[in-house]
Amino acid sequence: MALPKLNIIVAACKGNGIGNQGRLPWFLPAEMRYFREVTQERREELLNTCERNAVIMGRKTYESIPDRFKPLKNRWNLIVSNTLTQDDFKEHSTDQIVVVKSFSEALERIAKNGKIDKTWVIGGNGIYQEAMKLPLIEYIYFTRIDAEFACDVFFPEIDNNCFEKIRESEEHNENNLNYRFLIYKRKSEK
């Protein structure tokens, strides 16, 4: 059973801060639309199939999502938690939400599913750190917010020996914050 290739998506301020007290410290609706579009986008040849994308997140990340957006639609939500169980989500089918005990169990479930196009790692800090240690990461979609915020969780540094920046958007401004969308790709082994 081959483990899936992974993509990471993250928004971070200066210093790589990604959250504070279980919440995003900024409000950027256009950036959230970008997150939704990117994590739902599938390969064109799969648009008329039942295949979809998976998102892997920790419990705190899931809890930080506003209720009206839970579970993340059109994506298979895998929640890594030692405290939640599948019984906590009785109102949702296992086609929507699956609770797993570890990141590696999430990867195994996705590999067994057989109907997943892209797999996205969406946070938080511990999940990002675990994912970044694996050679399975292909792309990192990184929103760089050009401001400082008080944060208590951080995204790991991107290793320039392993990843190269392949795209950088023009600067966007929303709610008096400037930000750019960056994409990093894993360098091929030589």
Concise structural overview:
It contains 4 helices and 11 strands. The protein has helices at 29-40, 59-64, 103-113, 125-132; strands at residues 6-12, 17-19, 52-58, 75-80, 97-100, 116-121, 137-145, 153-154, 163-168, 172-174, 177-186.
Structure description:
With 190 residues, the protein is α/β, with parallel strands linked by helices. It has one domain (6-19, 28-42, 51-182): Dihydrofolate Reductase, subunit A (3-Layer(aba) Sandwich), CATH 3.40.430.10. It is 19% helix and 33% strand. Strands 1, 3, 4, 5, 6, 7, 9, 10 and 11 form a nine-stranded mixed β-sheet that branches. A two-stranded antiparallel sheet has the order 2-8. A hairpin with a 2-residue loop joins strand 10 and strand 11. The radius of gyration is 16 Å and the shape is globular.
What keyword list fits this structure?
190 residues, alpha/beta, Dihydrofolate Reductase, subunit A, nine-stranded mixed beta sheet, two-stranded antiparallel sheet, globular
Describe the secondary-structure layout.
Elements: E1 6-12, E2 17-19, H1 29-40, E3 52-58, H2 59-64, E4 75-80, E5 97-100, H3 103-113, E6 116-121, H4 125-132, E7 137-145, E8 153-154, E9 163-168, E10 172-174, E11 177-186
Parallel strand pairs: 1-6, 1-7, 3-4, 3-6, 4-5
Antiparallel strand pairs: 2-8, 7-11, 9-11, 10-11
What is the radius of gyration? Answer: 16 Å
What integer is the average pLDDT?
94
Put simply, the count of helices is 4
Decide which structural class fits the backbone: alpha/beta
Can you tell me the overall shape? globular
Low-confidence parts, pLDDT < 50 over ≥5 residues?
Answer: none
Percentage beta strand: 25-35%
Number of strands: 11
* Distance from first to last alpha carbon: 26 Å
SSE succession: EEHEHEEHEHEEEEE
